[in-house]
Amino acid sequence: MTDEAAAFVPGHVTGFFSVHRAGTPTKTGSRGAGVTLADGVRVRVAPADERRVTLNGREADVPAVEHVLDALDATAAVSASTDLPVGAGFGVSGGMALGAALAANGAFEGRYSENELVRLAHEAEVTAGTGLGDVVAQARGGVPIRLDPGAPPHGQLDGVPATGRIEYVSLGELSTADVLAGSTARLSSAGVRALSALRERPTIAGFVQESRRFAEEADLLTPEVEDVVADVVDAGGEASMAMLGHTVFALGHGLSDAGYDATATRVHDAGASLTGE
Ligand SMILES: Nc1ncnc2c1ncn2[C@@H]1O[C@H](COP(=O)(O)OP(=O)(O)OP(=O)(O)O)[C@@H](O)[C@H]1O
Ligand SMILES: CC(C)(CO)[C@@H](O)C(=O)[O-]
Asked: Which of 176, 179, 180, 249 has the most ligand 1 atoms within 8 A of CB, as the residue to mutate?
């Protein structure tokens, strides 16, 4: 018997990262750190006569989801909904891929374990070129540190033991696929340096400060994002740019204290899961 199933996947903002390409999508990934968010992606999967993927009620072309459905050989209707901006550094494509994997396995009474579904979704993201580390971070929750790249059984994760309020302001989209297709050497050396600094001082403030240094060193800041980050820091807060999007995230009330009309969410303290509704 098959039935519909639903999953929730937290949003994920990467603060800094380095790119690690290997012979297979499973081993390819990123090192780095980010924060998972209670604002996330809900994905519902139901068996259907033909494949259909929607995002917030509209037909959507999300290659990572197509790869997941191919791998599971699932003819299904996938409907995703999110309050997060798409293409702005919140891991929406990774969330849709992981949510589709979890929910399709549920709907079709599949035989995969969680690690195997994370691996499928990670491979789909890497193959689509839309992410390297979001899926494994979203599967973990909290404030994930990606120590070693890739999906289970290869990747290795740790975390900053922290929770709390997060604010964000999105100024527009930035194509992850375009940035990853370009030269990533400079960005990666900044990312490796930030990771060792965070491991020395694994606090959430340390994470945001290293993210800010990374964004500057990697030359990814646009003037607009740079101005907003500077305003938050001037007002005594901690903020940086979401990788990869024209988005600023801040701890606590950082953005609103600096006078911005920000969206508020929280660290999501658990990983992606089936929701049973
Ligand atoms: N309205 C839309 N705007 C942007 N992307 C869309 C939209 N609808 C579907 N997509 C698809 O969603 C995916 C967005 O991926 P992208 O990696 O750019 O952003 P993201 O996953 O939201 O954030 P991140 O930068 O953290 O990866 C792409 O596969 C794109 O084709
Ligand atoms: C490449 C990336 C920054 C895109 O959001 C993310 O997937 C990551 O941190 O690997």
From this structure: 176
Model pLDDT for residues 81-135, shown as the tens digit of each residue: 999 999 999 999 999 999 999 999 999 988 999 999 999 999 999 999 999 999 9
37 strand-pairing partners: 11, 267
Six-digit token string for 245: 């999007």
pTM of the model: 0.96
Alpha-carbon gap, residue 265 to 263, rounded angstroms: 7
Pick the ligand that lies closest to the CA of residue 98: 1
- ipTM of the predicted structure? 0.93
Ligand 1 lined by 93 (C-beta under 6 Å)? yes
CA of 146 to the centre of ligand 2 (A): 11
Q: 63-72 and 114-128 are packed helices; what angle lies between their axes, rounded to 10 degrees?
A: 140
Is the beta carbon of 131 within 6 A of some atom in ligand 2?
yes
Q: Please, what CATH class does the domain formed by 1-277 belong to?
A: alpha beta
Q: Is the CB of 203 under 6 A from ligand 1?
A: no
End-to-end CA distance of the chain: 17
185-to-16, 179, 244 alpha-carbon distances in Å: 14, 12, 16
Q: Tell me if 138 CB under 6 Å of ligand 2.
A: no
pLDDT tens track for 14-73: 999 999 999 999 999 999 999 999 999 999 999 999 999 999 999 999 999 999 999 999
Query: Would you give the distance in Å from CA 128 to the centre of its chain?
Result: 14
